[in-house]
């Protein structure tokens, strides 16, 4: 069996909503096979004073646009004004039925430069009949706990939405491959184009191989059709036919203390959850 997910990764600078809507309608017309369209961090929201409640006018417009075009849509992240009065950097996802299906508040803002509040919940969502997708934002990728938790929650594709105009983009590319390898998942690291980011977006497969990438800072659309069944295959047979990290523990092994977290790694809870990966 196979579970192909035709997707488009839009490496572009920050847009107004009207520009974004026009670009998305054009992409949908030119690439009708695409099911999931993804945009970079803060693609529609460059200023803190543009923050809205999660269910504000921008949310309704995005949901309507996804429904009109019949697409799974991740329009990047936006500034969200929470009920607590704080502002969050929040990634959102919409279904082809015009519903918001997920929202994720960035857990690791880039301190001390980013002034938004921290989220406290890892988030995945199901693309019906295909697979499960996890959301992360930029600096989250530097913390291995983020991608590990998303993989444990059943994510087969992790979207890392980025707006990096700084010199550490080179390291982020290494992290994208490393996070894919150690969790045996697809990872998309989607950066903004110039002048808001350094581009160099890419999609990595569960063994760490780069499937598609943008060489530079220009506005471009990366398209690919990853088969999410590759995740199960790599975990079954091993990376390079060898390494099966999710099958590390023998039945009955005792928990491993983790002093850093004042907790433990329990072998009984180690394996990823099942969910959309069972849908064929």
UniProtKB/TrEMBL annotation:
Q: Where is the CN hydrolase domain?
A: 5-230
> Pfam families from the entry?
CN_hydrolase
Identify the CDD domains for this entry.
nitrilase (cd07197)
Ordered alphabetically, the record's keywords are: Hydrolase
Question: What are the GO MF terms of this UniProt record?
Answer: hydrolase activity
The family database entries (InterPro entries) matched by this protein are listed as: C-N_Hydrolase (IPR003010), C-N_Hydrolase_sf (IPR036526)
Does the keyword Zinc feature in the UniProt annotation? Answer: no
Q: Taxonomically, which superkingdom?
A: Bacteria
The record's comment on protein family reads:
Belongs to the carbon-nitrogen hydrolase superfamily. NIT1/NIT2 family.
Quote the protein name from its UniProt record: Carbon-nitrogen hydrolase family protein
Native source species = Amycolatopsis acidiphila
